Amino acid sequence: MPDRTPLSDDAIAEALAGLDGWSHDGDRLVRTWAFDSFREAFAFLTRVAFEAEALDHHPEISNVYGRVTLALATHDAGDRVTDTDVALARRLSAL
């Protein structure tokens, strides 16, 4: 299980260098995906659910028709970005 200690801004910037499409927004990692339909977006979210459960770490989800936005922060680390968020972002990027 990845570490749940808050990362420094430098560590977050280093992690983001290998995570296309993700940004550091406040104290969260955020990425938006665009799909052709609600059905495709929801199918993607089903896959997200399996990855989140595997790490016991669950994103904030926004789904409007074919647009999905995920935000990652670790609640038990004061809603800050941790290695757990980076690990989940990597898994989600691979979907």
How would you sum up this structure in a few lines?
By secondary structure, the protein is of the alpha+beta class. The chain is built from three helices and four strands, in the order αββαββα.
How would you describe what is shown here?
This protein is of the alpha+beta class and 95 residues long. The protein has a single domain, classed as 2-Layer Sandwich (Gyrase A, domain 2). It has helices at 9-16, 38-55, 83-93, and strands at residues 23-25, 28-34, 60-64, 67-72. It has a 4-stranded antiparallel sheet. The mean pLDDT is 96.
Write the layout of secondary structure elements.
Blueprint: H1 9-16, E1 23-25, E2 28-34, H2 38-55, E3 60-64, E4 67-72, H3 83-93
Antiparallel strand pairs: 1-2, 2-4, 3-4
Helix pairs in contact: 2-3
Question: What structural keywords apply?
Answer:
95 residues, globular, 3 helices, alpha+beta, four-stranded antiparallel sheet, Gyrase A, domain 2
Task: Provide the CATH top-level class.
Answer: Alpha Beta
Order of helices and strands: HEEHEEH
Q: Give the total of domains.
A: 1
Rg, please? 13 Å
Report the portion of residues in β strands.
15-25%
Please state the oligomeric state of the protein chains shown.
single chain
Q: Biggest β-sheet: count, sense, barrel?
A: 4 strands, antiparallel
